[in-house]
Amino acid sequence: MSEGPTVVIVGAGIAGLALALALAERGIASHLLERATRLEEVGAGLQLSPNATRVLAGLGLGPGLDAVGVRPAAIAIRDAAAGREIVRLPLGPAFEAAHGAPYVVVHRGDLQALLLDAVARRPEITLSLGAVVDRVEDGADAVAVEATIAGARRRLVADVLVGADGVWSRVRGDVLRAGGAVYSGRTAWRATLPVEALPAGGDFGSVTGLWLGAKAHLVHYPIRAGRAFNIVAAVDDTWADERWNVVGDRDDLIRHFADWPADVRRLLELPETWRKWALCAAPPTAPWVRGRIALIGDAQHGMLPFVAQGGAMAIEDAAVLARRLADTGAPVADRLAAYADDRRRRVADVVATARRNATVYHLAGLPALARNAAMRLMGPKRLLGGMEWIYGWRDAA
Ligand SMILES: Cc1cc2nc3c(=O)[nH]c(=O)nc-3n(C[C@H](O)[C@H](O)[C@H](O)COP(=O)(O)OP(=O)(O)OC[C@H]3O[C@@H](n4cnc5c(N)ncnc54)[C@H](O)[C@@H]3O)c2cc1C
Question: Which pairs from 357-360 meet CB under 8 Å and 24+ separation?
Fold first, then answer.
């Protein structure tokens, strides 16, 4: 093993697991502390653009991702008021060849299971489930973490503590005293269906569909190697709740879409169960790093999912933090500062794009017509070109 620092990671979600793997690739040992006693298949779809799948492929997870995900042929952007397509952004072979990595849609539980399976095969990684962090002491030479793991008190001493504990992060809130999550005034409803339940015809199984409407939008795509179908409906709302798994009233959802095209309403009527979660963001003032403590993923920058980059930014963070921590020539504080410098600007730009899309996606009337006309005028090439700063990202060697 190299001379890298020891790292305690709080949270074994997408960010924490990816970080542990990226560190192990560089010979750095880590201990993951996950609050849940079992990592169940919670959640629904995640979209992973090439900036993220490139990192996962570098961790040896490309074939595994292909086995559980789907490579959509295009993103079909549609206008709910007119019930027709505005523009179609191709993600097929030419897009993949240009990026050297695919766009993949996947069930969050499948991605987490894939990462967990890889973690279990790495001797450098210890994973403790049912772990509650009780106290953190950030000292000049080390960080000490007192935790209750499966009922027993433990004291772990490491060079670095990483908060990868999601948008409701306790490392950010309780340890760094940097604020709680901020509700966005929007709710996401999500459901999954077996593909057999879908109406015949159409391109449901092969594209990501993005429908734009007044005060709401809808995203759907296939997951689970094409065996299942994921639908997410985002609506302007005032409901606030911390849970991911609240069962929503389907009639309540359908009421939001009463004026939408009949095909869309029929689609929304298909799932037996809809779950909903109140969309929220990390506070904009959340630090990246303080002392020997760093934040990654949603803990630092939980964002609106309107540019489909929450998971991707978490994966990028993991790659960059592992690279910086492996730089044994610099003191740990400098390595962490370099990680923050690498990430701050890029993530702020992505968060701002998501916020802008939240307005643009939910326009109505004349502004919506102007948006659609502008998208048609730009066409697929320029629209995809406008995303290149996100999709074309590559970590430094
Ligand atoms: C249950 C769940 C379901 C989700 N479903 C979707 C979805 O359907 N679609 C979507 O786009 N995004 C979903 N997300 C969010 C998405 O996974 C993240 O935006 C993205 O992947 C960034 O990941 P992250 O690892 O930073 O945070 P998360 O994925 O939120 O992972 C955080 C991890 O930290 C653990 N944790 C939290 N607090 C503590 C603590 N105090 N101590 C120890 N561990 C702790 C959590 O149990 C979790 O495993 C979901 C997240 C969760 C937790």
Answer: 357/304, 357/306, 357/307, 358/184, 358/186, 358/304, 358/306
Distance 81 CA to ligand 1 centre (A): 34
- Amino acid residing at 196: E
Pocket mutation for ligand 1, best pick of 298, 300, 304, 351 (most atoms within 8 Å of C-beta): 298
- Residue 133 Cβ < 6 Å to ligand 1: yes
Identify the H or E element spanning 291: none
Tell me which residue has its CA closest to atom 27 in ligand 1: 166
The partner residues of 46 in beta bridges, in order of sequence, read: 106
The string of pLDDT tens digits covering residues 8-59 is: 999 999 999 999 999 999 999 999 999 999 887 777 899 999 999 999 999 9
Any atom of ligand 1 within 6 Å of the Cβ of 173: no
Predicted pLDDT of residue 4: 61
Query: Which ranges of the chain have pLDDT less than 70?
Result: 1-4
Q: How far apart are CA 232 and CA 271, in angstroms?
A: 12
Asked whether the beta carbons of 138 and 39 are under 8 A apart, the reply is no
Find out whether the beta carbon of 17 lies less than 6 Å from any atom of ligand 1.
no
Ligand 1 mean position to 272 CA, how many Å?
24
Please indicate whether residue 103 is annotated as part of the active site: no
Name the fold adopted by 7-70+107-181+282-359: FAD/NAD(P)-binding domain (3.50.50)
Pocket test for ligand 1, best of 33, 35, 145, 171 (most atoms within 8 A of CB): 35
Q: Is 33 in the pocket of ligand 1 (CB under 6 A)?
A: yes
Mutate to test the pocket of ligand 1, among 31, 108, 169, 309 (most ligand atoms within 8 A of CB): 108
281 lines ligand 1 (CB under 6 A): no
Q: Which of 279, 238, 231 is nearest to 254 (CA)?
A: 231
Rounded Cα gap, residues 45 and 350, in angstroms: 20
333-389 pLDDT, tens digit per residue, is 999 999 999 999 999 999 999 999 999 999 999 999 999 999 999 999 999 999 999
Distances (CA, A) of 133 to 5, 45, 147, 215: 20, 29, 4, 40
Q: Residue 384's CB: how many other CB atoms inside 10 A?
A: 18
Nearest-CA neighbor of 79 among 367, 310, 277?
A: 367
